[in-house]
């Protein structure tokens, strides 16, 4: 497991568009289709990463809670599936069913979308406002596998709550830490 931090990205960046296969429904999905009225969370995740496994339940809780409040969601998997077959679209579909993902779990087989977002690790969280401008790019919370902290989504929840309460999202954001995206050679 290679410990990698999310890249520093300038807030205000416009969300790169995408059209990717949702492994749950086998339909192509665009950014506009997942966009939420209040904001949109794009998550770079995968099946095998211990950091994603550690926060999976909390991700599902956040999606189920904040969708009702006007947020849209998508998970994107960009790893090289030849080297990491446990992240293949078939395995993504199984993983989504097992963890009851209620958001599109999209396959970025070309890795072009991960590059467009400058994603570096799994998990990597991007929260956009209602105009698809980046307002949060940071960690879910301070929990990590083995550090004894239970995942509660505190950092991401604070950013989403700021949106709901018409407050500015704190620009002091701690990077996400996880496994590096498994790039193709």
UniProtKB/TrEMBL annotation:
InterPro entries: AhpC/TSA, PRX-like1, Thioredoxin-like_sf, Thioredoxin_domain. One of its GO terms (molecular function) is antioxidant activity. Residues 9-165 form the Thioredoxin domain. CDD domains: PRX_like1. Pfam families: AhpC-TSA. It comes from Christiangramia sediminis. It comes from the Bacteria. This is Thioredoxin family protein.
